[in-house]
Structure formats: structure tokens, C-alpha cells
Amino acid sequence: MRITRSVAGRRLRAGYVATTGLTVTALLLTGCGGSSDSDKGADADGNITLTVADFGQFGYKEAGLFEKYHELNPKITVKEDTTAEEKNYYPKLLQQLNSGSGLADVQGIEVGRIKEIVDTKADSFADLSKTIGVDEWVSWKAKQATAPSGAVIGAGTDIGPMSLCYNRELFEKAGLPTDRAEVAKLTEGGWENFLALGEQYKKKAPEGTYFMDSASAMFNAVVSSSPEQYYDASGKPIYEKSASVEKGWKLAAEAASKKLTQGLAQFEDQWQAALRKSTVATVVCPAWMAGQISTYAGDANKGKWDITSAPGNTSANWGGSFLAVPKSGKNVAEATKLVKWLTAPEQQAAVFKAIGVFPSNQGAYDLPDVKNATLPYFNDAPIGQIYADGAKSIPEAVLGPKDGVIKDSISTQINNMEQRGTSPDDAWDAAVRTIDKAIG
Fold first, then answer.
1. Which one of 66, 250, 318, 422 is CB 3.0 to 4.6 Å from 416, fit for a cystine?
2. By CB neighbour count within 10 A (0-12 exposed, 13-18 middle, 19+ buried), where does 274 fall?
3. Is a pLDDT exceeding 90 seen at residue 421?
4. Are strands 158-159 and 358-359 parallel, antiparallel or unpaired?
């Protein structure tokens, strides 16, 4: 998941991450050299313009990194071409790859697409394995972008370690603990404990409120915390027999039947309104979700929310992207240097500070802007510590080329159980029909 870039002047904020601040010196120390003779895109004076095509909100503009790169490398100018929605970006990228034209010097790739790109288009991208220092990344992140040949076709930008965001004010009104350590203890046994907490909430819930926003979000968290998800290691779809899918579906059906969820499609208008009106008490919270909540809940709800660790002892990953360098570009060497710089610890920490997306480069975890990070909006929750701890327990999962299609199809049917009262059996059959038609 990539945060959608705002329109009409409204910027999604990350709840104003409070840290000790990156110094200009720290950024300068990781600067690159000038243009390379191997690049063909320089003008007569040696000036190069590098193009970066991405989607949503990668945070480079907000962190001022492209301007900083130009200061460090005066002959290089970086221009960003952003598509607001990834669902519109990806078909265009495939079309450009198939035609061999129109590609930027650097292309963003969403984690839900990386397996398909690795399987079908790896030869179109430069191998970054000797450039980015794959040992710096959480191990599973680098493997997601690694082709069978050993080539690494994408440098990891961010990850989405899971946490739990909860409305302290609603918890207090329902007679539940509000301290983040106490809340974590109540759910440490796993998502079953989370639902049990929901039943406690329901007994004294303020009128018109619900324990969770969406059972599909919980489903995704359950599946994402398991190494076995929608595909096996051979690339065969196994979603119908996957233990994690079965568990997630059962819990989602239980949440729907017990009316613990408001049944909202996340990010849509009704979901945004629910945050603003404080009608939901919990939201499953990958790192980037805090920015969504603080934006749509608004200033009136500042301090009413908090963040604690996700239920269970195994975290999940939801989201994250990569930067890749097409071989067909005129500036492959310089584009590779830019990717290395953008995904170095200092720059990933700067992006985290700017928009709240969590670094995939482990070298960033000990930097002050990550390690000491808190979110004032969320009662000064120590997010640097919470997310880093979560990142360490994320299992190495097998990804498939149509993970996103499968997840979205199941989520749609979970929403039908919540909103329309569709039976679990009918909803599951509908999901299977949709998925099988889509993946062949």
C-alpha cells in the first residue's frame, strides 16, 4: 500500500513525527559523485536530468531530497512524475516495458507487483545487487526483488510493519485499559484475543461506535503475519487451502456476525467520516496508516489516539515499494547512484520523518530520526521503537504474481458479509469465482 498523494492542496500528513532531526551534515555525507561517462543522456555541458516515475506518496518531495541531491550534484537535476493511484500507474508501466519505450530513469514498483515483475520482466532492469548493499535491508525485503539469476532488480524503499491504533477516549468510555502496554498484554495471545477484547468493548461501547473499522483489514493482518499466504514456493496458488487464509477468513466472519466491525471500505469517504466522528475504536495499523488516521480524524482528535504492538508474537507486513532502474535508460549509471542514495539509511530516515513510512534499510533504525521518533498526535507513541520491533518479527513470506488480486477479491466479500449480511459460505464462493476468473 502506498499513501495516495493528496489533491486540491490537501496533504496527507504523518501525524507530525517528533524526532531529534537529521542534520544537513548527515545528508551530505552520503552524497554521490558527478555524472558518469557511461551515461548518454548528458548535454554538451555534462548536465543530466534524471526522471523518477512513481505513484502515491514516496515522500521524496516532502523530505526535500531531490533538491538536496541537486545541491550535492550540481550537474544532475531530478524530476518526479507521480501518478496518484497505483492502480493507474502499473498498467502503464507494463505497457512501457512491453513496448520498450517511455520508461523513466527510475521506476517505482509496489510490493504487490514485485513478484510479477521479477518473474516476467527482470531482464528489463539493471541488477542492483552489487550497488545497494542487500545485507543492509531486512532479509525478506531484498529477496522479494531477487530474480532466480540472483539479480536484485529493485531497492527497497519502505515496509509496513504492523501495529494497532486505538482510540483511547473510546476505550476509556467502554471501561477498557488505555495504557498501550496494558492493551498489548490483552492481545498478546493473537487475533483471537483481539476479538475477545472487541466483545468486552461492545458490552459498554458508546452508542453508535464499533470496535473496529474493517474486518478485511484484520484478515489482511492475519494472513500477512504468516509465511504461507496465497502461493506456495513453486508459484502455485494455494489460497483455498492456506492455513493463514482460513484463519483470517474465520476471524473476519466472526467479527462480522458479532457486529464488532462497522464494515467500512478503508480509505473511502465513509471510512474517513468515521475517523472524524470517532465511531471506530481500533484500526489495524501498518506504519503508514498513522498518517491516514491523523489526516482524516483531524486536529479535534489529536491525543485521543494511541499506538501499541499488533496482536500476537509475529508481526505482519502490509505495504512497501521498490525503486528499479530500467536497462533501456540513457542514464543507467547515474540513475543507479540516485537509487542507492535515496534508499540509504539517512534518506530513508528523512522520509520517515517527513511522511511516516518506515525504512526497509535496517541501518536507519539506530538513527535518531527513527530510533527516537514519537507521534504527538498519538499520545507521543514511540513509533520508532514499535515499528522496529515489529519489523524484526515479520516472517519471510512467499509472494505470488496476483497476491493483490486475491486479497482485494477476498476483502470485497468480507465487506459484503459486514454490510449486506452475506453468509460466509456464499461470500467465500463468490470470492473464489472472482479470483479464479482473474488468475486463470
1. 422
2. buried
3. yes
4. antiparallel
